[in-house]
## 1
Amino acid sequence: MKLSIIVPVYNEKQTVSQIIARIEETPYEKEIIVIDDFSTDGTREILRQLDTSGQSPSVRVLYHAVNQGKGAALRTGIASAAGDILIIQDADLEYDPSEYGVLIQPILAGRADVVYGSRFLSGPHRVLFFWHSLGNKLLTLLSNMFTDLNLTDMETGYKAFRRELFSRISIEENRFGFEPEITAKVAKLHCRLYEVPISYFGRDYSEGKKITWKDGFAALYCIAKYNLR
C-alpha cells in the first residue's frame, strides 16, 4: 500500500527541511509531493536544493508561479499523486508524521474511505488560543448540522483519503476553505468516515502561524456554499 504525502508549503523555511526528514523516516512505501505556493522567505531555494541534491529520494517538488493558497496547493498535489492513500501533511511541525499508522489504520483495515485526525479526542497538545479552539468547535458544530456527521474536529489539517475518491471529488477552494468543502463533499458521497485521536503541537503567530479570523468567516461561507448548493 503506497502513500502519497501531500505537503503544501508557503514561507516555512524554519521547518520545511525538518518535516521532510521526519516523513522520510516513516516506514512506508511513499512519495512525498511538496507544493511550494510561491514562498518568498527562502523556502523555495531550500526546496530547489533538496530537489536537485537527491538527498530525499521520495520527494518531488512542484512550484506555483504565484501564491494561490493552501487549497490550490492541495489541488496541484492531489492531481500528481499516484499512491493508494493520500495524506495531507502541513509543513509547520504541528502534526507528527510518526502517527501515520494511527491515521491510516481504518483504511488499511477496510473500514474507512476517509480518516480525520482529531485534536480534541485525546493525545498531548500544546495549550494555546482559547478563541481559536472555540471557533474550531463552532465551525465543526455548524458543519455537522449540515452534514449530519458527528465529527469533533472538521478543521483538522490531518486527513487521509483513498486516492480513488478524487476521481469523484474536485477541490474548488484556493485557501483554507478546503476543510469545510471536502467535508461537505465526502458527506454527500456517503463515504465511510472515521476519526482517530492525534497529537497536536500548535504554534503561535510569532512562530509563523498563518490562519486568521478572516479565514473563520470564509469557512462559514464555505459550510453554507457546499452543503446547500
Note: DSSP finds seven helices and seven strands in the chain.
## 2
Amino acid sequence: MLRIHRLLLVASLLLLPCRASAHDIPNDVTVQIFAKPQGQRLHLLVRVPLKSMRDFNFPERGPGYLDLARASTVLPDAATVWIADFIELYEDDTHLSKPQIVATRISLPSDHSFTSYEEALAHVTAPPVSNDTNLYWDQTMLDVLFEYPIESEQSHFSIHPALARLGLRVVTVLRFLPAGGGVRAFEFTGDPGIIRLDPRWHQAALRFVNLGFFHILDGADHLLFLLCLVIPFRRLGAPIPVVTAFTIAHSITLIASAYNFAPNFLWFPPLIETLIAISIMYMALENIAGGSSLQRRWMMAFSFGLVHGFGFSFALRESLQFAGSHLLTSLLSFNVGVELGQLLVLIVLIPALQLLFRYAVAERMGTIILSALVAHSAWHWTLDRGHVLAQFRFAWPVLTAALLASALRWVMVLLILGGLLWFLQKTFQRWGERAPGESWKAFAGKFRIGVSSIARSALSGHSQEGERGP
C-alpha cells in the first residue's frame, strides 16, 4: 500500500501545471545589428531578446523580476557565448579576431533607439536602467556593443551571422554604414552564410550566377516548361531558337521588375504563378495535338518567357539586397546562371528522350504520354494557384498622373518588345531558310577558289622570271 501511495503522489505531481522554464526555445526572434567601420575599429551594435539565451539563469528578485544589478555581471558572458562566438567578421577576406565587449545594457521591448546607429550607440553607452525597475527577464532586450580591431575603414568587409540557434525562426535586420557614408540594409531569415557588405562586381556576379543556376534546377514548373519546349525538337541544335527566345523574354521582364517597372499589387504575384501553370499546360496540350512548327514554338516561348521572367523576379527579390551597388551586373549574372542550368538540363534531357523514343516507346506515343503527365500536374497547379488568386479582389486603379506615366512607360516597353519580336522573327526565318551546312560549304568553296587563284598567280610569276633569266 505504501508503494501504491508513492506512485499516486508522483503521478499527481506530474499532472500539476508547471511554469515554462528559461530553457524553452522561443518561436520568433528578431535580431538587430549595426556595423560601422571607424578608424582602426569596427563597431558592431547588436540587440537580441534576452529569452533567446537559454543556458543562462539570470538572477531574479520578487515575483520573477530581473535583478538588474546582479545580472550586469552575467550579461558579458551571455553576449560572448550566444552572440560573439557565432558572428564571424572578415576584412578583405581576412578573419578578424574575437571582439572586445565595450558595453552591455538591458532595454525594454518598447525602446526605439535602434532606429539609427547614433541613437543606438548613445543608448547602449548610457547609464543602465535603475535596479528598482520591475522587468520580467523574458520581456527584455539585451544590447551589446562589440569592437573589432581593423587595418582600415576603407577595407571591404564581410560578415557571417550564424544566429539561427537563437530561436525556431530568427529574422536578422543588418545595417552596414560604410566609411563613405550612406546605409546598406539587409534582412534575412536563419543563417545566410557569408554576406559581402560591400561586394566587388565579380563577387556579386559569382553569387548570382550560383543563385540562378540552382534556382532553375530547383524550380519544377520551369523544368517542366523546358521539357515541353524541347520534346518535339530533340536535336541539340534545333531548340536553340526556342531557348534563345525564352531567354531574351525572361531577361527583359526580370530586369524590368528589378527596376520597379512591374505592377506593385498584391494580386500580381499569384496572377503570374497562375499564368506560369497555364503556360505549362498549354505547351503540353500543344505537344499532344502535334503539328507545331519551329517558328510557332519559339514565338510561344518568347510570349510565355515574359511571364516566367516575372516569376524569376519574385525569387530574386529578396536576394537583390546582396548585390551592393552592382544591380545590373547581378541581374545579368543571374540570367547567366539560369542559362547554364538550362544548358545542363538540355544536355541531359535530349539524349534521354532519344533513348526513350528509340528503345522504350514510339516517338508519337511517348510524346503524348509525357505531355499528358505534365498537363495533369500543370492542371492541378492552375487550380491551386487560381484559388489563391481568387481570394484577391481586383479593383480598377484611380486615374492619376502617376498612373498615366506608368501606362506610358508600359506602352514604350510593349513597342520595344514588338520591335524585338519582329527582329527575332526575321533572324530565325533567315536561319530556317538556310540549309544545314550551307554557309560552311559556301565558305569552303570560296576558300578553295582563293587558294587556287593565289597558287596560279605564284606559278605564272615564277615562270615569267625563269624566261627573263638573271
Note: Confidence is low (pLDDT under 50) at residues 4-22, 435-452, 461-470.
